[in-house]
Specification:
By secondary structure, the chain is mainly alpha-helical. The protein has 9 helices and no strands. The model has no long low-confidence stretch (mean pLDDT 88).
């Protein structure tokens, strides 16, 4: 599964799983109008669908190997995440008791987390350092990073809908953003134990094909690790501003949302830098 599509699938999957967990288990449940869950859930379903679609070609490339079953399982679990989230959103929209939608959403989250196991197993089978446990930790760390930042951006916008909403929830997601920086650090540093793209391939057709898919910069030693840490340092600075602005409340919530915009742009770069070495 050494392909850009596989890397994209991993980044989208971590974003969807992390966002889903924060959406359905966060303290905002019952404190904001359910339009917030409908909006955020719709984005989670679309991102999860993107992860499933991006993973299809890499899984197809596993045909004829003993890893194809694991690839299909991961793909099916991402599809379950997509479908269950979409059903939960529809349930909220048609006024089904909210608890039903929440249970469906939590089940969707579990399906997404479950997809991390076969993905980590495929990685371990390719002589990945740390085996399955490290692979799962890398994916969970990425989910914390991407989920906290994506949900934070949407929540900040929701304050334009519910202007009297307490800034308590924005403070909580701002601190989640701080935790996300720590998770991102784990994701990047653990990725350093994996080989750079194409590095473990002998000279020949396979290496040439891999070299055509990945930029030479990404194949240079620890360049992806350096890139990830550099961008993460900027996100750490942003997270500090987020906490300060969220505490001020009022118009500062809009400024905090703007900071989340910057983080949403930068965080995928960190995850791509880390996950390009995953398989």
């Amino acid at each position: 599964m050494d392909a850009p599509a596989a890397v994209l699938a991993l980044v989208l999957a971590t974003t969807a799983v992390g966002s889903s967990a924060l959406l359905w288990a966060a303290p905002t449940w019952g404190a904001v109008r359910h339009g917030y869950e409908i909006l955020t859930g719709a984005t989670v379903a679309l991102i999860a669908w993107g992860a499933w679609a991006a993973l299809r070609a890499p899984v197809a490339s596993l045909e004829g190997t003993d890893q194809v079953t694991r690839g299909e399982l991961a793909s099916n679990l991402l599809l379950a995440l997509t479908v269950l989230t979409a059903v939960a959103v529809i349930a909220l929209a048609v006024k089904v008791p909210p608890v039903v939608a929440r249970v469906l959403g939590l089940l969707a989250t579990l399906a997404g987390v479950g997809a991390f196991l076969p993905l980590a197993a495929i990685r371990a089978a390719r002589d990945g350092a740390g085996g399955i446990p490290q692979g799962v930790v890398e994916l969970l760390a990425g989910a914390v990073l991407m989920g906290a930042i994506w949900v934070g951006m949407i929540l900040g916008h929701w304050y334009l809908v519910e202007r009297r909403l307490s800034n308590r929830y924005m403070i909580q997601i701002a601190w989640a953003n701080v935790a996300a920086v720590g998770a991102g650090l784990v994701s990047v540093l653990l990725s350093a134990r994996n080989p750079a793209p194409c590095a473990d391939l002998p000279a020949g057709p396979a290496f040439q094909q891999c070299a055509q898919m990945f930029s030479p910069i990404l194949r240079i030693g620890s360049m992806t690790v350096i890139l990830g840490l550099g961008v993460l340092a900027i996100i750490a600075l942003i997270s500090g501003f987020n906490v300060k602005l969220a505490r001020e409340g009022g118009r500062s919530i809009q400024a905090s949302t703007g900071m989340f915009y910057l983080a949403v742009i930068l965080a995928p770069a960190v995850e791509f830098a880390a996950k390009v070495r995953f398989f």
